[in-house]
Fold this protein.
Amino acid sequence: MKRVVWKRCGYARRGRSHLADHVVCQDSVGTSYRRNVSVVALSDGAGSAELSYVGSKVCASVLCDVFCRSFDVIWRMPEEAARASIVRAIRKALMEKLPSGYEMSSLASTALVVAVKRNRYIAAHLGDGVIGMRGRDSSGDFLRALSGPDNGEYSNETIFITSSDAVSRLRLYRGLVQDGGSRATGFLLMSDGPEAALYRKQDGQLAPACSKLLDAVSCSTKGEANSLLSETLELIASTKTFDDCSIALMSHV
Amino acid sequence: MNELMKIGVEDLFDNPTPRVPVALCLDCSGSMNGEPINELNEGVKTFYQAIDEDEIARFSAEICIVTFGPAELEADFATLDVRPQPPILSASGNTPMGEAVKLSLDSLERRKELYKESGVDYYQPWLVLMTDGKPYGGSLELLNQQVNRVTRMVESRKLTVFPIGIGSEADMGTLQRFSPGRSPLRLQGLKFSEFFSWLSKSVSRVSQSTPGDKVALDFEGIRGWAEL
């Protein structure tokens, strides 16, 4: 019997602006477990890109696939080659889905992923949104942002997988789950919608709700965790942001 | 599931709304006396009311008012919950446009620093420059410096500028120098309220934009207040 050590959960919902304008949700999440690799991925389609809902779906799905298939390769590669390889894989899949008459920029979307294989993890992040990490070390439990949002100077600017400088702007993190006295016990990805309620830019802190969500994933049934996640996103979407909201979580059991 | 796991608003952060800084740099020289200054006051009031009625813009638009004749900071950047009413403007003096633009941009730079220190996100700032005449009574050298400063900011996407002429005596040539890439517009008669109503809608659209959004100007709406 397969022993699951990292439980995964993800959910995306439409924001108030898109509900009012009858526009589909442009956020997508993906989770996967194959070849001893647990992956969670998330992608947020660019507001004005016509097919960004397709772009974000492809992006989240390809990230899951690439990291399940090529975790060891990405782990061993020099950093720049690994970044280029991830971007190339996503762009190739986007190109295959691109309808004729459209430009690649119509599929513009961000990319966030965390993959764990035994005692190693790899995270990659392009654009806004946040990757959070929970763990335990000699001073107790910690919850911190592993990777913060990469916006431009202005609130409505960020970088997308279709941007010319995507390779250089993609941030790659490779680390050990158990690293000396420190142990990672959970990862959390969020788009810029929930970022408004779960991440404080001023000091880079993550809100207490992040810990509760990670607890729910590790301690509850899949149905209960999904239900808490969808209720939380409903709360955030109705009180804190007009944007689409998505979160993907992975928690050690 | 354990009730303690339920998530409420107390488990979330209350982050500040991203700001849209809008600097109104308004000619209030002696030539604006009478009906023009009254209509300008009505227009600015319309702007405040329209922003106040917008669910998002009310908390994101930060308005600063600089007048010239002489150059004065009438109201520094603030949202409407801090300053719900605009100051009442009066007309007198010359037209030191360079000094007024400098005051507006200096105030804007200070505000941007404050946003950065406080971790407040913001959108590309806007400068609205309105005049019914030509620069007079100020330093020509300073005017030229400010033209270069605005041009650099617009070209590096640090500023959106709307130069508006009022009446037939407005020096559209000088306004053009402040507006690289886009021609200045002349107000139809004294349609300040129509202009400020259009401006509030544009601010509202920006305040709702998310990464990747291209916020296009409502060119159709411009026909309602500008001579085209």
About this structure: The CA atoms of residues 138 and 181 of chain A lie 6 Å apart. The first helix of chain A runs from residue 16 to 20. Chain A touches chain B through 50 residues (CB under 8 Å).
